[in-house]
Design a protein that fits this description.
By secondary structure, this protein is α/β, with parallel strands linked by helices. It is built from nine helices and 14 strands.
Length: 303
Amino acid sequence: MIVVAGEALIDLVPQGRGALAELKPALGGGPYNTAVALGRLGSPTAFCSRTSRDAFGEALLDGLREAGVDVSEVQRGPEPTTLAVATIDAGGSAAYSFYVDGTADRLFTAPAGLPAGTRAVSFGTCSLVLEPGASAYEELMRTAAAQGLFTALDPNVRAGLIPDADAYRARFRNWLPWVTLLKLSAEDAEWLGGTPREWLAAGPSAVVVTRGGDGLTAHTRDGGEYSVPGEKVDVVDTIGAGDTVNAALLHGLSAQDALSRDAVAALDGDGWGRLLRFAARAAAVTCSRAGAEPPYAAELGEL
């Protein structure tokens, strides 16, 4: 079982250009997209979050169930669902404005335990910024690491939600001893400061940096550096692409029985190459269609 912990929200996606373009609601949130992608790939997956009892919250749970994701760990509340308003630039890249005051996912509390058979827990995005939930997710990350579980982190920085950038960067560095796999975009890496080698020295067994259409690079603690190019595709938008990479990496590591610190450290160039190429194919499919619509296993072929 892979547990994905973090927010579920509604993306309001513009259907045209300009500030007053019609907005279409879509299921979203970085962790939510990761969970759906894992379910579609066939990995046993559970979602650990807190969602509203409003219509959007019900739709979010329905989306998880349709992907085969276990929702028994999802907490519920009467508060409204978080909204993220997207704007799409000429290259298909998305930027977001968030409506988060008093929303349900901010009130997440750390669970007493994780589902039986949990091997990995994935964290990221807004859930690690917005209090009081951020501290609860941090507690869960620390507990999972202490239990020897594989932990994955994608900070997926949303700078507009971070009131004190330096404080957040310090908090990020404090998470690293609890992290097995750090995945982040080149833009996030630049914003956070530091290098893969510095981050590896702080704790993770591997760091994967994504560079959009230019591909992905994995950095390992033994000095290894493995890169693959991006898959060529006509980009509709990039919504959910990084989340799909998260899911593909976790699914691929599970398929190689590598969801542990020692197993990740033992992966050779061939293992990393197959894993990164699989993640690149998965992200390309997501970019080829509107919104966060990650691929199913049958669309990708063998790892």
